[in-house]
Amino acid sequence: MGTVQIKKLLVLSSSRADFGIYLPLLKKVKNDPFFHLEILAFGSHLSKFHGHSIDQINEEGFKVDHTISSLLTGDGPVDIATSFSLTSLKFAEFWKLHKEDFDCVIVLGDRFEMAAAVIAGIPFNIRFAHLFGGETTLGAIDNIYRDLITLASKLQFVSLPAFKERVGHLINSTNFNCHVIGSLSLDNLAEIKLLSTDEFYKKWQIDLNKKTVLITVHPETVAFDRNSEFATAVFEALSIIGKEKQLVVTMPNADTAGTVFRKMFEDLKTVLGDNVFLVENFGIQSYFTCMKYAGLMIGNTSSGITEAASFSKYVLNLGDRQKGRLAGDNVLQVAFDCKQIVDLTDTYFGQLFPGRNIYLKGSAADNIISVLKGDNG
């Protein structure tokens, strides 16, 4: 892009997860008169089953300018493939109408919905800027979607130098527009005032003064036929852990076989009652607050990789969903095995990780804005 100035921005957000990461950037762009910002919400944002997280966008003071509904209720391979096709079809119509309206379209991550939106924009020569390509998650088909988005994008923002190198290999070029910015989501720590335990209890009726484990487990979408087996192991482990500690569960996103884990967590709530809390959509402030006060994180979510170290938290990273992603020493790789999960919980619960967060570079949003304005192109 050289020194081209980008003023008219469209940001695509398909889930609560990417919106939470976008948030520091959206706030700065909104308050900068240089930019004209529009937001398009789609995917699980529009699903009541997944918490209707479009409401969170509005609650944060942002206007949703466009919506596209294309997510099916099922979670089998045919449902996911059909949702992908429907999303691409609807975005084809959107790009047809709006192909000249934006200088740049910002996209994030590795979701199948995001990949479908981007693929539909290729024939229209939409100028995409991809946040956080170059990473590797071998246990999720999202790994493929992430690379597809990277290949379709003209501007890249990555979190670590190793990921910039991989993007170069992927696009087979040594001369490409790529910027290392660290983790954008960590800018939230400087921007957001976390809740007190009293404020958190008033909002969620969860007492974080008790021994708390924060849990986010998504299905493995490569070995999706084994998710019932994996869910059983997690259920057995948490049934033991939950006898002495309260379990705060953020429910899975829309993924292949995601309902397997949803049902498992609902069954766990039936067994353990008031020791289990199932949350569809915390929002970034409450999620980080819970992370701050929890004694341990268990799951296979990217937030355990990129954010937990900033709270000095250890993470039990389950299975292969995040396999291949660079992680700090606070992240402990654990199989879907009841005994391993229970034993490592006993060992690390309440322990503080003394190291640094390898994803913390600082001022990620400011660095993105500098590039968009052409100051650092």
Briefly summarize what is shown.
With 377 residues, the protein is an alpha/beta fold. It has helices at residues 16-30, 54-59, 77-98, 112-121, 142-152, 161-171, 188-191, 197-204, 227-241, 258-272, 284-293, 302-306, 338-348, 364-372, and strands at residues 8-13, 36-42, 66-68, 104-108, 128-131, 155-158, 178-180, 212-216, 246-250, 276-279, 296-299, 315-318, 331-334. The longest helix has 22 residues, at 77-98.
Largest pleated sheet: 7 strands, parallel
Distance between the termini: 7 Å
Number of strands: 13
Structural class: alpha/beta
Roughly what is the average pLDDT, rounded to an integer? 92
Question: Could you characterize the architecture of this molecule?
Answer:
The protein is an alpha/beta fold and 377 residues long. Helix content is 40%, strand content 15%. Strand 1, helix 1 (16-30) and strand 2 form a beta-alpha-beta unit. Helix 1 crosses helix 14 and helix 4 (112-121) runs parallel beside helix 5. The longest helix has 22 residues, at 77-98.
What key attributes describe this structure?
377 residues; alpha/beta; seven-stranded parallel sheet; six-stranded parallel sheet; 13 strands; 40% helix; globular
Topology:
Layout: E1 8-13, H1 16-30, E2 36-42, H2 54-59, E3 66-68, H3 77-98, E4 104-108, H4 112-121, E5 128-131, H5 142-152, E6 155-158, H6 161-171, E7 178-180, H7 188-191, H8 197-204, E8 212-216, H9 227-241, E9 246-250, H10 258-272, E10 276-279, H11 284-293, E11 296-299, H12 302-306, E12 315-318, E13 331-334, H13 338-348, H14 364-372
Parallel strand pairs: 1-2, 1-4, 2-3, 4-5, 5-6, 6-7, 8-9, 8-11, 9-10, 11-12, 12-13
